[in-house]
Amino acid sequence: MSDTVHAEVVVLGAGPGGYAAAFRAADLGKKVILIDKGESLGGVCLNRGCIPSKALLHLARVKSESKEVSSFGLKYSEPEWDIEAVKKWKNERVVGRLTKGIAALAKARKVETMRGSGVFSSTNSIDVTKSDGSEVKVTFDDAIIAVGSRPTKIPDLPEDPRIMDSTGALELDGIPKRLIIIGGGYIGLEMGTIYSAMGAEVTVVEFMPHLLPGADPDVVKPLLTKLKKEFASIQTGTKVKTIDPQKDKLIVTVENDKGEETLEAEKVLVAVGRRPNTQGNGFEEIGLDIDERGFIKVNEKRQTNVPHIYAIGDITGDPMLAHKATHEGKVAAEVICGEPAAFDTSIIPAVIFTDPEIAWAGLTETQAKEQEIEYDKGVFPWSASGRALALGRTEGFSKALFEKESGKLIGMSIVGTNAGDLIAEAVLAIEMGADAEDISLIIHPHPSLSESVGNAAEIVSGSITDIIAPRK
Ligand code: NAD
């Protein structure tokens, strides 16, 4: 006989969506239980995703900057990696500190955290097998499902420890001489940047004709130019047929319109997307509506077809981004607590933390064209930015799209150093319904990269002075 406990709100999954939902519900006065099977709170993002990868990308950037500045008159000798020290720093001082912080925040809010695997046994209960083997039934008034996603596997690839997913790659257990990355998306390019900086010869094999298929091709171009110099090879329009594990290497057969080719590497990283953790949690058994890709269907309040069961984050569909999950988590918690909250999915910024970074918010130019929206475009090249020149990083640009009919900003894409931070202004501007003049009239700090956002708007409003305005 298992024990039974009751929660007003139970949250299954403690990633950035789940813990935000639990904390918001607790702050609004609910008795909350937060269940997760992981060793520490924070889910994939904090433990095995966004945060550790950003720590390593920072080191990769410092390494490449130390080389860049040599032609400016500051010379360093070749940096040396102490991988064991890097792992310790990443695990203890970055990830460990954050996950401990989340645990402390849960405690301060009196959110009960339960370590174990939860399976819905009815529309009002979850059976939890705790990490110590004991079992608990958690009954609830409302539940929020935030169980996330896992890496997609390519069918028929052999099981071999040298074929890694993003979790394995972040562990840094041996830097291979050669690394083949299957998938030229977010993870492929971020991890490729890290491994290349650590000395691996990186080959990217991407199925689609372009890297980062979701971004505008002109925005990807400056990144591609840099990666072509750093990586051993980038093969687009290419698919992986087989991987043949040998004693000392993996032989990867790829195919494209030129025919078949074999590549060799000591390790392979598979980064071909993520899929929702739909199976084994009792979702189907309790009658939740699930689409053909395995995503739980939700309305704008993040309610499933069982109105007191909510779902948020990767389990509800694309884009699978932590900041979307966090926002949805707060919406679900507020709806449960009787607040007039809803999720508006139109503006979810996307950032690829490569070097240069790529970020966009609202519509990309490709999407604006597909949707036959007429727009005015302002593109400010960073070669005209004093700050970019001072950083030695002029390859970037900021591109703003304003709808012709309303004059409002509908999309912004930025490529360049710190694009991921700069895009926040565009998110605010789109949310606030700003037009080109509104953004042009904002005084941006000088000299800063943020000026480029104002400059892109000035090109459209006609007030640009930093460059000769392109002819209309
Ligand atoms: P992704 O969707 O970004 O990229 C996968 C890539 O693999 C695509 O370009 C796709 O065309 C390609 N592909 C698919 N099948 C292939 C095959 N058989 N052979 C070769 N290429 C193939 O997915 P990801 O990089 O695995 O990342 C997963 C998700 O994690 C992302 O979609 C994103 O939501 C999230 N993520 C976000 C960040 C960030 O916000 N900076 C970083 C990492 C991951």
Q: Can you put this structure into words, describing what you see?
A:
It contains 13 helices and 21 strands. The protein has helices at 16-27, 43-48, 50-68, 83-108, 166-171, 186-197, 217-230, 322-336, 365-370, 386-391, 419-431, 436-440, 451-461; strands at residues 3-12, 32-36, 112-122, 125-130, 135-145, 149-151, 163-164, 178-182, 201-205, 233-235, 239-245, 250-256, 259-265, 267-270, 274-276, 309-311, 350-352, 357-362, 375-381, 397-403, 409-416. The strands form 5 sheets. It has a 5-stranded mixed barrel. A 5-stranded parallel beta sheet has the order 7-14-8-9-10. The chain has a 5-stranded antiparallel beta sheet with strand order 17-18-21-20-19, sandwiched between helices. The longest helix has 26 residues, at 83-108. It starts with a strand and ends in an 11-residue tail after the last helix.
What is this structure's SSE topology?
Layout: E1 3-12, H1 16-27, E2 32-36, H2 43-48, H3 50-68, H4 83-108, E3 112-122, E4 125-130, E5 135-145, E6 149-151, E7 163-164, H5 166-171, E8 178-182, H6 186-197, E9 201-205, H7 217-230, E10 233-235, E11 239-245, E12 250-256, E13 259-265, E14 267-270, E15 274-276, E16 309-311, H8 322-336, E17 350-352, E18 357-362, H9 365-370, E19 375-381, H10 386-391, E20 397-403, E21 409-416, H11 419-431, H12 436-440, H13 451-461
Parallel strand pairs: 1-2, 1-5, 2-3, 5-16, 7-14, 8-9, 8-14, 9-10
Antiparallel strand pairs: 3-4, 4-5, 6-15, 11-12, 12-13, 17-18, 18-21, 19-20, 20-21
The structure holds nicotinamide-adenine-dinucleotide.
The site of nicotinamide-adenine-dinucleotide has 26 residues, from helix 6, strand 11 and strand 17.
